[in-house]
Each structure stands twice: as structure tokens, then as C-alpha cells.
Amino acid sequence: MKQDTMYKPRILVIDDDDQVRRVLLDIFSGVYDCSEASSAEAALKVLAQDSFDLVLSDINMGGMSGLELVPHVHSLSPDSVVLMISGQSNIETAIEAMRAGAFDYIMKPFDIRHVEAAVERALKQRLLLEEKRRYKDELEKLLQERTAQVDRLAYYDTLTSLPNRTLFEDRLTQAVALAQRANKKVAVLFIALDQLKKVNDSLGHLAGDQLMQEAAVRLRGCVTKSDTVARFGGDQFVLMLPEIERTKDAVDVVSLIQETLNPSFKLGRQELFATASVGISFFPDDGKETSSLVKNAGAALYRAKKSGGNEYRFYTADMHAKASKRFELETSLRHAIDNREFLLHYQPRVAIDSLQIVGLEALVRWQHPKLGLVPPGDFIPLAEETGLILPIGEWVLREACRQNCKWQNKGLARMRVGVNISARQFQQQHLADTVMMILEEAELAPEFLELELTESSIMSNAEATIEVLTKLQTSGVSISVDDFGTGFSSLSYLKRLPIDSLKVDQSFVRELATDPDDAALVMAIVSLAHTLRLRVVAEGVETEEQLRFLRLLRCDEIQGYLISKPLPVEGIEQLLAAQRPLFHDAIPV
Ligand code: C2E
Ligand code: MG
Ligand code: MG
What we know:
- By secondary structure, this protein is of the alpha/beta class.
- It has 3 domains: 10-129, Response regulator (Rossmann fold), CATH 3.40.50; 150-317, Reverse transcriptase/Diguanylate cyclase domain (Alpha-Beta Plaits, 2-Layer Sandwich); 341-578, TIM Barrel.
- It is 49% helix and 20% strand.
- The strands form 4 sheets. An 8-stranded mixed beta barrel has the order 13-14-16-17-18-19-20-21, surrounded by 4 helices.
- Strand 14 and strand 15 form a beta hairpin.
């Protein structure tokens, strides 16, 4: 019942006695919107068309009685209030009608004041009923919304709106049960976007989030209704293919995933390409339970990532052995610093013409108590993943500076020592301050330190990079770009950077004499570097032929086994003491 002032409550008067109806209509027509019916049957027809706030009904009307009418009224119009009109003789019946759901009764002959009061009470009741219903509806709606919200939070990933781990595991458990009965396989595909970390590091987390959202939409497009794609956080998605027949079905889906990721992603004004690594496990072959299927697909994913990304791998039983070996390695790496298990080897860098040593590069090794001397390639990636690279890197820096100062104090040739700085170290807020502090501690002048940064870590976050590098260079520290040619440098950006040299990656040097493309590339790098007034160092020079080529291409310095392998401190001391060209057979020009 509307409560605005213009609204007239609607009343239906039902009585087979014309006179009674007239009396009642006379009383109420001015105040209320009144309709009438001369029998219960006629009233039902009216009620089917229209709704009323109040129904005033006689009890005995020849055909259907008022008593029988009450439940019909309520089923047609649940909020209508019914008032019975009763003669003196059938008060019992009126009371019975109230039991059946009527609200009150008025007696004939009418006392107008009583009738008006009863109608007013009944209409108040009508309002009350309506309010109660509205309140209940609102409460129910609120409750539904809250439940949906809680469900969303508990079962869906907020960034991508995909099912989360909980919902995925739930569905996988069901799928496994069904597949067991149907004697079918279930495939679990653990998927990681290869580029997310790079995007987060270089373009920021907002761009990373955008990449994941777009990838989620594309992945959803790769599956049918019965499959589930979920997000497990970070760069990880998991896909479940229930009731598949053959392993090949899973491979087909991997191809589809690779295809859908193929078109470029637009993140703001940036356009980039993304690929995925996928690890696959099957029920029942690789596990009977949800947790082991997910864990094994994860182990397979780790192998896929290890092989360079954009690959898929099936789970194999020996993956666990490898995973636990990795875990063991991580644990012992954590103790390696305290146990003083790291040491540095140094590799000479020589001028290309005179072959005189012009610098050294510090290269870390891990003297593992059981595994022996572990090369950096076997533990630096793990150290980067776990963050242990920060304390390790700081130790390397400190040790290299300390050793260089020691050599100088011994009266050996004074030269620059290069230290490799990983991307993670470079992102540290106070790198420049840390470097200055370490130099001071070691009492080494900044011009005897060179920092080797990889292309990708320099290319991320342009403005911050320029600021840190400028600070370092102003203080006298040299900067070189390591493994140059393997990243994606923007030339205009390179020009703005305060760097001193480029180290051409050994992959280009390797084929230099045999692959014209590599020769052309090195030539381009040298001429670019010289235009920008940068020195060019070729890494991994192993043959005389390579040296000859590099001389032709006007490279400035070289480093490689042809001259010397990285050597322990004593080996370097001997070389420095000898102070002569290191490779006698190559005639210095
Ligand atoms: P890098 O900085 O490019 O160092 C050059 C690598 O090439 C060294 O490998 C060196 O031994 C090797 N090499 C030198 N000459 C030749 C050659 O003629 N032929 C071949 N095939 N290889 C040659 P190493 O010592 O195993 O280090 C590998 C990488 O590990 C380094 O590459 C560097 O990226 C990283 N690394 C080493 N020490 C550190 C460190 O203290 N901190 C960080 N963050 N990374 C380090
Ligand atoms: Mg290096
Ligand atoms: Mg290098």
C-alpha cells in the first residue's frame, strides 16, 4: 500500500445483499477507492484482475461462503487484509473465519463508528504487513549480496575474476572422482606467463596486473564449459581438462594457448609479446589426489621454465628428485655466506693491440662442502629467485674491493676490477650509497671499480637508472653493459645513459669468424659504441681467428680463454707480477 498522501486505499466490498453493500459504499467511497462484488465467485474474478488493501466480506452469501473465500484472497493477494461481516447469529463462524486468516469482523446491524474504527485498524495492519514484507525482502537481498560477496572473495581471484586455488581444487576433486568411475584421464596444466616478472620490473605492477588480466581473458577463451581455468597468484594459471581420452588432447590445448597468446598485448602505450611455460600432469598416471596432481604439474612447469620458457613439459617421476635437490641447494646456499663458502676468481681483460692487462673481472664461485666448486651459472639464478643475491652480491663487491686494494698495496699494477651486479641488486634503493660505503671501507679509489650491469636491468625503469648511474659515475666508478646484444636496448636511451663500455656477449664472438651475420652485428655494435664514445670489450674470445677479426672490427679490449681463464688470487698475482703480454704467440700490433 503506497503511503503517499494522494494514495487512496483500495477496498473491495462483498455481500449478496445490495443494501448492505450500498451502506458500506456510502460510508467509504469518499475516503477510499471502493469496488464491490455481489458473491464470493464474482469477488474472485475481481481479485484475479486487481489487488486490494482491504477485503470486506459477508460470511453467508448463498454460493461460496466468506469463510471459504479467505484463503483464496490470500493466495491471490497475500498482503490484503480481510474483514468479515457477520450477523449476530453467526459470531462463531466469524471467529472461525479469523482463524482461517481474517483480521477482524464487524457486526450487523452496523454501528458506523465501530465500522470505521475496524476499517482503520485493518488498514493499519495492512501497512504493517507491507512494511514487514519490505523489510524481509531487503534483508534477504542484503543477505544474498553478502553471500555472493563472500563466495567471490573465498572462491575467486580478485584481479582476474577467475576461480582461485580453493575452487579449483574443489572442482579437480570432483573431476577426479568422475574420471575414476568413467575410466578416463584428467589433465592438469600449470601455466606461467614468462614475461610477468620482466614487465613488473620494467613497466611496474600496474602493467603486470593488466597483462595478467588480458591473459586471463584469452585463456578463458581456450577452454570449454566443462574445463576450469584458475589463477593461483603471481604469474600462475592452472587449467583442468576433465575426462580426456589421450595425452595428445592436452598437447592440443597447449598449442591453442600458445596461439591465443601470440598476438601482442597492449599495456597502455606499450606493446609487448608474451609466452607461457606449461607443466602437465595426468590423473591417474601422475597422481591420484588433487594435491599431488597440482604439485607434479608444478614440478613439470619448473622444468619447462628452466628450458627457457615458451615450452611445455610432462611430469616425470625424476622431477621430484630434481625439485628436492633444488630445495637442498637453496638451504645450503642460505648458509654459504656465514660459512664463508664463496670465493672469487678473476679474469684478465686485455687491450686488443698490446694484449696488456687493463682490467680484471671478479667472478664468484661457491666452494660447496659436498658438491665441490660450483660455477655461478648453477646458483646465481637460484640466488636471484630467492633474494639471496643481495647479501651474496654485497659480499662479492666488498671482497673484490678489498682484494684490489691489497694488490695495489703490494705494489702490483693498479687496475680496475669489474664486479657483476644482478638486476635485483640494481633495483635496490640505496645501491649507490652501498657502493660508496664499501669503497670507503676498503680504502679503494672509485676509479678502480667497474660495475657490470646487464642490458635488461639497465633498460627497466629509465629515469631511476639514469639517476643511480649518474651518481656512481660522478663519483668515479665505471659502468659497463654486460652481455650486450642479448637484451633489447633502445639506442636513443643508450645515448642518454652515463656508461663507459659495452661488453659484447660471447654468443656473438663464438661464430664471429664463420657467421657473417654475427660479424656484421659486432661491427655494428663497435661503430655504434664508438659514436657514443664507449669502449667495446669482446667476451669469450677463444681463438686467434676471433682475435684477428676483432682487431679488424676495431674492438678495444678482449677477455677470454685465449688470454686466460678466470684464476684464483695467486694466479692473478703471478700474471700481474710478470707484467707482460699474456698471449705470446699472438703478435701484439
Ligand atoms: P659474465 O659476467 O658474462 O662473465 C663471463 C663468463 O664467461 C664467465 O663465466 C667466464 O668464466 C666465462 N668466460 C670467459 N672467457 C670465456 C671463454 O673464452 N669461453 C667461454 N666459453 N667462457 C668464457 P662464469 O664465471 O661461469 O660466470 C657466468 C656468469 O655468472 C657471469 O657472466 C655473470 O653473469 C655471472 N656472475 C659471475 N659472478 C657473479 C657475481 O659475483 N655476481 C653476479 N650477480 N653474477 C655473477
Ligand atoms: Mg660480467
Ligand atoms: Mg658477459
